[in-house]
Every structure is written in C-alpha cells, then in structure tokens.
Amino acid sequence: MKLGLHVPNFTWAGGPATLGADLTRIAQTAESVGFDRMSVMDHVFQMVRLGGPALDMLESTTALGFIAGKTERMKLLALVHGVVYREPGLLAKSVTTLDVLSGGRAMLGIGAAWYEEEAAGLGLFFPPLSERFERLEEALQISLQMWSEDDGPYDGKHYTLAQTLNLPAALSRPHPPILIGGSGEKKTLRLVAKYAQACNLFPGDDLSHKLDVLKEHCEREGRHYDEIEKTVLFNFDPGTSGELCAEMLERLGNFAEMGFTVAHGSVVDVATIRPLELIGEHLVAQAAAL
Asked: Residue 125 and residue 119: Cα distance in Å, rounded?
C-alpha cells in the first residue's frame, strides 16, 4: 500500500508570509519519509466543512508547479480538477507542462465539480450536473487526443478545438495517468472504466460494492479491471508519538484486502511536520508490505 499526502488547508500559524516556506517543508518532508504522491484541491474558496471561504486557499495549478520545483520524486496531482473551471485544452496543456517540468511526475485528477458557491463567487462557468458530466467525458477525450499522435481537430457537443497540438509532449508514457474522482455508479465509475488509470473512492461508501460496479463497467468496456489503480481517501493521525499508527495499519490492511493500493489523504497538524515524521517512522514501510 502506497501513501499519498493531500493538503486541503493552507491556513497555518505563520499566515501568507510564511506559506511558501511552510508548503516547501511539508512537501520535502513528505517526500523524504516515503510518501508516493502529493495533491492539493482544485478550489478557489475553502470548503465549508473545513472552515469556509474566509480561510486561505491556493490555486491548484500554480501550487503544484511550486511543489514540483521543491521536490524530485513524488507524483503530483489535483484531487481533483473541476472540469468546468478551465477549458479542457488548457487543462491538458497545464498538466503536460507540469509533467515535463517535474520530470514525468504529473497526474490528471479530474471530476465533474460541485462547489457552486465558489464558482458563483469568482464568476466561473457552472452548468447543471448533467452537462458537467457531458463536459467531463469530452475533456477526457480531448486530453487523451492531446497526449496522442493525433493533433487534428476535436468536434464535440460542448467543445471544439481546431488543432490539438501539444508540444512539448508529456514525459509520462503513454501519458500522465488519469484519476477520476467520485464514486457515482452510473456515470463516474463508467468513465473510470472507459478512460482512467485510477479511481478515488470514499471510505464511507460500501467500497466492496463500488469495486464490483467498477468491475462490471470494465467488463462492458472491454477493460482489464486490474489496470486501474484503486485509491481510497484516508485521513492520517499518528498521535503525539506514533501510538495510533498500529490502528491505521490495520485499517490500511483491510483496504489492501479489498484491492486498494493507494491510501491518499490529509495529515493532522501537517504544518508542524512532526506527524509526517511519525508516519515515516511507524507506517510507510509497514504499509508498503501489505
């Protein structure tokens, strides 16, 4: 089981003046203790359940580029890009740029978007859910075309591109892996089976059932189920001295038995750094052996 660090909160003790230095320490420590990947949210307002819009939030593509320049090994992604926040050609170009400049470490995390308050706040396009899913599928098609040898036009219901030219090409082969966020059985998991290399599921769901649904979609799409990386959201709290790591390892073992190979989530009090160090001391190697 690999571990991924998700950073959903940027309101730290030093405020904006030290935010860059704090994020650097977090990213470099996470990499040094063995985290496989690191992600940020694609939000412009903080979510209500994490404190709401009055708290600090960084724009995701800029933040990922900053992290890329401070690290050497970890995979990097947004968990996940809201499809309607950027034109898909520009989004694919952004992920390609991150991949090239990071030495082939980018992933495309993408979903249908949901946070209507932030979209209204900054005047972002936010059509109804059914249209967002239509646009999500077209964005996936556009990204894959831009990462192929076909630089011709794309003519969809919602997007028209005259030339899908994308140079320099991504370093990742055959392209940056695509992770689709969400666990909707009719639409999201079908798109995972058809287009993605990874899914991202929520521990509160009936995970065994969700994986069975994904397997059924894979069979219909003629896709090998084992080709898809199964990622589960997981919040890390090692305790003050690592005393909670054994309990976390047991939970990770349960996920591994289901077929999950990545646990990806936030770390309590991450800006203090010590929780990351404790996870490195008591959990990373043990989880890798599951």
From this structure: 7
